[in-house]
Amino acid sequence: MSQMPPALSKCPSCEEPLDSGDRFCGACGYDLSAVPAPPDDNPTITMNGTAPHPPYPPSAAPSVDWPIAPETDSSHRPAPVHVPSEIQGTDSAGHELPAHASGVRFDGPPHPDEYTLQAPDPRTADFVTTPSSGTKVCVACRAGQVDQDGYCENCGHAQPRERDHMEQELDAVSAVSDRGLRHHRNEDAFAISSTALPDGSSAVVAIVCDGVSSATRPDEASLAASRAANESLLEALPRGTHPQQAMHDAIIAASRAVNALAGAAPAEHAPHQNAPACTLVGAVVTPTLLIVGWVGDSRAYWVPVDRTSPAARLTEDDSWAAQMVAAGLMNEAEAYADERAHAITGWLGADAYELEPHTASFKPDRPGVVVVCTDGLWNYAEAAEELAQVTPLDAALRPLHSAQVLVGHALDGGGHDNVTVAVLPFPAPSMGAGSA
């Protein structure tokens, strides 16, 4: 069992922000318990370019150009770790180190793959053993078993978590969510389903939520909101509730679910942290109607099958930028270029100023798809025309593939945020296709 690591604000390997009590970095799997306490004596090598206190008087200090320790290789994975006995080196005075030296050197030959790794190299090892039922094998070393905390017992590598990348497909709607390339966890969530209206026609549902990172437990907030809204819609629509009213009620139900998290917050969270919070955007598609509802800055877009027809954004952000544009104080380009642009003015959570669910109904006169997404996507395709250009032409026929392509577009653009996309073809298919 690893000891509790010293208090660190960021990972020494990849500089990912750390939470109190973390034993491994959630981004690169770095073993934080291996970080030593500050030594009493002076270090003999320069780490990451930071100059230590010289062990010699300035006049006697040797002139040594120490290399910077590599943090990642060309594939952006953590550099291989080597035990001290594997590497020959010298001390800061140029003398050969004794065989039992305990320091790790980073100035060896530029061929780290020639050293014996602590675990089998997954690129060359021949794995002939089959893991016992119910156990997971490490995705990094392919040899160690994964413990209950999600780390390899052999090499300590953090395993992909369930919410790092999620996909779900129904015939009538599909969704994909990804952690992105910069965040240490996925704070987005989604729910998709379909049901029957009283007249026997179908209704397809997609709910997408984005946790507010500055709040406590944003990942729990988005998950609770998406589930509550979806369940509310699946209960109301078969009863004959008008879809727009049902969407309004679903947002209220989602808000209550997020508020309940604040009441159940551990004592150590209050009063120093904000209550759990998230945004929400949802869509209901029927054979004749398209209904959207939202709170916050997650969005819904309309993309027609015939791309000679214009695409359209169906929602208006609850954000600082949107308020500036609505007030006529800035044009859209100026507002969204401001550093305050993404400050939201509406959200679900116990400390929301006032809950104002937005809903709208549309009657499209041609087939198309509704793209429901978090800002992790629209940051890279903000205008409706831009989003239409990166949406596959066969989106209505292959919604899962289209959602995958759109998430990939965000990751290729930098993946600075969690990204979640749901794609719903319009009109909704007849019952029997895509039932929940």
Brief overview:
By secondary structure, this protein is α+β, with helices and mostly antiparallel strands. Helix content is about 20%, strand content about 15%.
State the helix count: 7
Unreliable sequence segments: 1-6, 38-74, 77-92, 97-129
Shape: globular
Residue-averaged pLDDT: 78
* CATH fold-level assignment of the largest domain: Phosphatase 2c, domain 1
Protein name: PPM-type phosphatase domain-containing protein
Organism: Streptomyces flaveus
Region (Disordered): 35-109
Domain PPM-type phosphatase: 172-426
Structure description:
The chain is of the alpha+beta class and 436 residues long. It has two domains: 119-159, no CATH class; 162-426, PPM-type phosphatase domain (Phosphatase 2c, domain 1, 4-Layer Sandwich). Helix content is 18%, strand content 17%. The chain has seven helices and twelve strands. The chain has helices at 218-236, 243-263, 320-326, 332-337, 375-378, 384-390, 399-412; strands at residues 165-170, 173-178, 188-196, 202-211, 277-285, 290-295, 299-304, 312-313, 348-349, 358-362, 368-373, 419-426. The strands form two sheets. It has a six-stranded antiparallel sheet. Helix 1 packs antiparallel against helix 2. The two termini are 43 Å apart.
